[in-house]
Fold:
Amino acid sequence: MRQRIDTLIILGAGGDLTGRLLLPGVASFLASSQAESLTIVGVDRADVSPEAWRTKITTAFEAYPSALGRRVAEASRYVKADATSADDLASILGSATGRVALYFALPPAVTVLVCKALSTLRLPAGIALVLEKPFGTDLRSAQSLNRLLETMVPETQIFRVDHFLGKSTVLNMIGLRFANRIFEPLFSSENVEKVEIIVDERLGLENRAGYYDSAGALEDMIQSHLLLVLALTAMEPPASMDADDLRGAMAQVLRATRPWHKNGTSSRRARYGAGRIDGKRLPAYEDEKGVDPHRKTETLAEVTLAIDNWRWAGVPFIVRSGKALADDRQDIIVTFKNVPHLPHGLTGVPGPSRLRVSLKPATLDLDLVINGSGDPFTLDSSILHADLGDPELSAYGEVLAQVLEGDPIISVRGDIAEQCWRIVTPVLAAWRKDVVPLETYPAGTPGPSGWIVD
Structure:
């Protein structure tokens, strides 16, 4: 039986991530049917009074109000400390009660320093280490961080969280693929022409230059979020929903994944120029505050991947993500091959059938070719629509619920994090050599010409 977390210690409590995403996620959990009380301890270097800290939590909790949330906010406390100091960490951990989760709401470089300090301490029994993506800054640093973490706690106590991979997303994909005999046999190279995983957003940089300008769309979205979605879309059926079975199946398919061209040139990149979104003028990315225009950071990335296994050999998987685009979308599009022979006399087929799975909102649309009204010899397209299950919790709430329950089912396992970096390494190398040109597109448009995706 898993032991629940009693105390959540947030390192980097004064940062934007904590106030904008993490604390509202805690509130979502506390307002849900899964809620149980916990103690929150915020840690950062700044001087923050108890009143100011409680105001920060109370404000963040307003999105998901609950009586339990108010009690947890009132009982929470803030500690001024240096999270890279072994002495400060020992003091913080020594004052915590019950089973502890240590949440790293920190930049990657600081996370490494904190882990090195923690590795010199005797950690509390059962402590959970909760790390935000990115997990390392390249393959070598990810491997180094994993080897360090392995010396500290078992893998089952390491939670590499990716809010994009919430529990509802995982279960919706698994339910669709493996609880429906009609779909599972079709997911193979015999029937599928291509698979596209697209996450576009209308938002621009939104004052995130400090992180985003050194990462870009490829590292921020594709290397982490989209490759995990690809794994769920393409993996073999797991034996159970146990964390080991599920993550093992994801790791297996990622080990078989590579860029379509092994030198990384099966990719495209671009960044937005000046434009308008919702009538508001957006400056060109290179003119945004804090951006180094000589860094050539992309705001739109697309990579075509191959999966070298029996099921998917020869099927291109196209992953794309970008900012300041015309529409928000989070879609998985499976385009099926045309039928091998259409009986003579039938006309009007509008194109290949597609299965569209939207992650937000959670919906499914399946194209069906049927006899049209009027002339029955003229085929027409009809769409079968279904709404998938809506989550009770926010994305961060789902992640935190699993952490607090001690269930790593949606945590990114160490070898999976390394595989994601391995897959994009040739692409990053090609871009650094300028083998792949950096295109531009006006903000608020679908992207450069030739990038239009159905």
User: Anything to note?
Assistant: The radius of gyration is 23 Å. Residues 216-234 form the longest helix (19 residues). Residues 264 and 430 are 6 Å apart (CA to CA). The chain has a mean pLDDT of 93.
